[in-house]
Amino acid sequence: MSIAFSRSLRSMQSDHPGRWIRWLVGALVLGGVWGIWFVGSRVKVVAVTPAAKLDVIRSTYPLETSVDGRVIVSHLRLGRKVKAGEVLVLLDDTKAKLLLQEAETQQQATAQRLAALQAQIRAEKVALYREKLSAQNAVQESKLQVKAADLSARLAAEQKRRDQRLFRKGHLAKATYQQSRTNAQRTRALAGAMRLKFRGLALQQREKESRYRARLAQLQREVAALKGQEAIQVATCKRLKHELQDYKIVAPSGGHLGSVVELPKGTWVTKGKKIGTLIARGNVKVIASFAPADALGKVKQGQLGQLRLNGFPWVQYGSIQAKVHHVASVPDQGRIRVELNVLNAKSTKMPLKHGMPGALEIELERVSPATLLLRAVGKWLTSRPSQPAPSADKTDSPS
Questions:
Q1: Which of 242, 246, 238 shows the shortest CA–CA distance to 87?
Q2: Is the pTM of this model over 0.70?
Q3: What pLDDT digit, counting tens, does each position of 22-35 carry?
Q4: Contacts 24+ apart (CB under 8 A), 257-262
Q5: Closest residue by Cα to residue 288 from 311, 306, 270, 265
Q6: pLDDT tens for each residue of 295-335
Q7: Domains of the chain in sequence order
């Protein structure tokens, strides 16, 4: 008995106080780390519903011919995938090209005639300016000649009057007087001729200017007519170019051919003939329904979500990323309808078909675990049934 007691005593003495301190410090550190995580970290709060499905909206385009023609090339194959703007059927457009070439040639000829007329108008304007300047110089010269002739006539008339007085007094010979009189008459006639020449030059200048202006007006009328003709020809070329595109039946959108008509080379088709149907690539959406308590005031436009399709394990195929586009504000049959746009429709490995079901998860917010705990406690407290208070009028009955 004394041996066992001594062993216990030695074991108690061997325990050092540092071991308990290390355990305490480790527990405090772990508690601190957990407390930081509990308060400072952020975890996702999501709204989950199993009532979700894909909604693929597809547009159907009928393929019809716009003109009569003979088939040159046909790329119509049932189920064939096509791109927007891809040529599906090409009709013989030789006649349309010839008409367009003829119209373009006429337009070019009209443009050349118009350019030539405009150059002629510029030349006529230059000639009119030069002619007007030359006529003005000639008229000015004639005017100066008239002044010189009038001056000579006045001098000759003065000389005649002086010679006449001298002749009457007998101081001048008759022959000299007659010569003076003849000189006065000649200079007077010459002055009159100069005045007539001056009037003729002025009239001639006005006539030439009028002819030039009439010719310019005629050229300008021809230019206006040619401009109108050119505008009509330009519009005709644009119309023919537009009609030339009718000989090509192109895909109005990307998609695949849902139905086609076999058109071997050389087949004659009439205007308005239906030759196939194009099913365009549809916009893919996610349609989901939530309980009002899970969606109203929580699910909002722009929030991100992911859809996991039934039958396609998300570990292997991944999930479909989506963004909330519309949230109904009024419940329908006790559920809130939520629409989301698919973000990775082209990159996903899954074939997206209309009506494929799955489970949708929408990230509502990110909060700390402490907040989640407080919310859970508050929810639990509000959900507890209230205990009825004992009535004051009840008394203990005697036994």
A1: 246
A2: no
A3: 777 778 778 777 77
A4: 257/76, 257/77, 257/78, 257/79, 257/80, 257/82, 258/60, 258/78, 258/79, 259/78, 260/76, 260/77, 260/78, 261/76, 262/76
A5: 306
A6: 888 898 998 999 998 888 888 888 888 999 999 988 888 89
A7: 43-58+282-370 (2.40.30.170), 60-86+251-272 (no CATH), 95-245 (1.10.287)
